């Protein structure tokens, strides 16, 4: 099962490198179902793995000129503040059990997995749906809708803090529609934002009482980084518009599976 898990880590990194988002949403299910890690602890591991993996991917994209630094800063600052605050102050005070009705107990771990599954469904729809706006040519003027970018940054940071996913499926549409970036720059810039907010968000877990297995976390990260380097290289050969919907359907099936397993067959 561990061999399958590490192979899945490579696939996660591969998809993150190819489409700039979506891949990180598989990290928590891989950790929970293939490695048996507690869901709450998995969100902490996921932040570190996704952050480090995205950082490697963003460097590759930066060398290709696909990272728009000003946009990364404008979007990233509220996102970083939000994810750190959620990990440091919100996650530790979520009650366990979350609530109970009669004999039914909705635990903190169940809350995390159900929220994660709902997020996966939202991500899958975002990836399956065809974009309404045509991709802009590189080199065009970047225009900022500052209030919307700020709100989007806070929203994505909060989501990342709760479930440990990078939120690329939320970031990329925002960069294309709100900042007017071409798709390739949106992917590279998204990876930079994900890296910064995820790694800083992880620091919010330090001292929170979670027992972190650093050897395992770094090993898992190494496999994921192999995947993202390979994925970033393959972007030259595999068209994003064909890969993204196919991966979206996979994420949709996974989200439905998690909901069924946690709510119906637990």
Any overview of this molecule?
By secondary structure, the protein is mainly alpha-helical. It has one domain. 71% of the residues lie in helices and 2% in strands. It has 10 helices and 2 strands, in the order ααααββαααααα. It has helices at residues 2-19, 27-34, 39-63, 69-90, 108-128, 146-163, 168-178, 183-203, 214-234, 240-263; strands at residues 99-101, 104-106. A two-stranded antiparallel ribbon has the order 1-2. Helix 1 runs antiparallel to helix 2 (27-34), helix 2 (27-34) crosses helix 3 and helix 6 (146-163) runs antiparallel to helix 7 (168-178). The protein is globular. The two termini are 20 Å apart. The model is unreliable at 134-139 (pLDDT under 50).
**Average pLDDT taken over every residue:** 81
| Structural class assignment | mainly alpha
In order across it, which strands form the biggest sheet?
Answer: 1-2
Strand content: under 5%
Low-confidence stretches: 134-139
- What does the radius of gyration come to? 17 Å
Beta-strand segment tally = 2
User: Could you say which overall geometry the principal axes of the C-alpha atoms support?
Assistant: globular
Q: Give the count of structural domains.
A: 1
What is the number of helical segments per DSSP (H or I, 4+ residues)? Answer: 10
What can be said about this structure in brief?
With 266 residues, this protein is mostly helical. 71% of the residues lie in helices and 2% in strands. The protein has a two-stranded antiparallel ribbon.
Describe how the helices and strands are arranged.
Layout: H1 2-19, H2 27-34, H3 39-63, H4 69-90, E1 99-101, E2 104-106, H5 108-128, H6 146-163, H7 168-178, H8 183-203, H9 214-234, H10 240-263
Antiparallel strand pairs: 1-2
Helix pairs in contact: 1-2, 1-9, 2-3, 3-6, 3-8, 3-9, 4-6, 4-8, 5-10, 6-7, 7-8
